[in-house]
Write a structure and sequence with these properties.
Order of helices and strands of chain A: EEEEEEEEEEE
Number of strands of chain A: 11
Helix content of chain A: under 10%
Distance between the termini of chain B: 41 Å
Structural class of chain A: mainly beta
Number of strands of chain B: 11
Shape of chain B: globular
Largest interface: A-B, 25 and 23 residues
Oligomer: heterodimer
Distance between the termini of chain A: 36 Å
Radius of gyration of chain A: 13 Å
Order of helices and strands of chain B: EEEEEEEEEEE
Strand content of chain B: over 45%
Largest sheet of chain B: 6 strands, mixed
Radius of gyration of chain B: 13 Å
Shape of chain A: globular
Chain lengths: 112, 110
């Protein structure tokens, strides 16, 4: 199993551009999450999903959108990128019966 | 609201014992987690407490007191590779959502 994979690993965006961060898991987990982590800080939840077709906002959803058309994929969309969105983005997944979350390697995004 | 506090930084000596504290005030509670995160890497799961008491796993132990809103992670026989950030997180029972503290950066010196 590859676990949770994320692409790209690094990206530089200009202000106002948009992009999609990809996340895929091959563990058949129902739950998936997107977090952002600013330098020296903990993780903040952006969006989460409890199954295909179901998504909900986390703590910091503004400026982002998500979709969950399949169990495996949970892409995060940034529209009109702003410098405040410079961060490391982690995708994670888990099963309802197991509270442990498995994290992907992260995407380091810089908006200038 | 949700509030999770832990020290920002700690320093300890190789071979010693260190205790990292975490206090929390959350709207729901269904367990407390500790994750380890090496610089530039993803967090990895260390421990989970849902009942009061001590959970031991090798060199690492985690303690929970729900009435006090308090947990600690105890690391014994410190090794240089234990230099990392340690994240305390609370599960608030909604879709397995975790609320994270800011993390404690531990530096282990020879």
């Amino acid at each position: 199993n590859a676990g949770v994979t994320q692409t790209p690993k690094f990206r530089i965006l200009k202000i106002g551009q948009s992009m999609t961060l990809q996340c895929t898991q091959d563990m058949n987990h129902n739950y998936m999450y997107w977090y952002r982590q600013d330098p020296g800080m903990g993780l903040k939840l952006i969006y989460y999903s409890v199954g295909a077709g179901i998504t909900d906002k986390g703590e910091v959803p503004n400026g982002y959108n998500v979709s969950r058309s399949t169990t495996e994929d949970f892409p995060l969309r940034l529209e009109l990128a702003a410098p405040s969105q410079t961060s490391v983005y982690f995708c994670a997944s888990s099963n309802p019966g197991s509270y442990e979350q498995y994290f992907g390697p992260g995407t380091r995004l810089t908006v200038t | 609201g949700q509030n999770i506090d832990q020290p920002t930084e700690m320093t300890a000596t190789e071979g010693a014992i260190v205790q990292i504290n975490c206090t929390y005030q959350t709207s729901g509670f269904n367990g407390l987690f500790w994750y380890q995160q090496h610089a530039g890497e993803a967090p990895t799961f260390l421990s989970y407490n849902v009942l009061d008491g001590l959970e031991e796993k090798g060199r690492f132990s985690s303690f929970l007191s729900r009435s006090k809103g308090y947990s600690y992670l105890l690391l014994k026989e410190l090794q240089m590779k234990d230099s990392a950030s340690y994240l305390c997180a609370v599960n608030n029972n909604a879709g397995n959502m975790l609320t994270f503290g800011g993390g404690t950066r531990l530096m282990v010196k020879p």
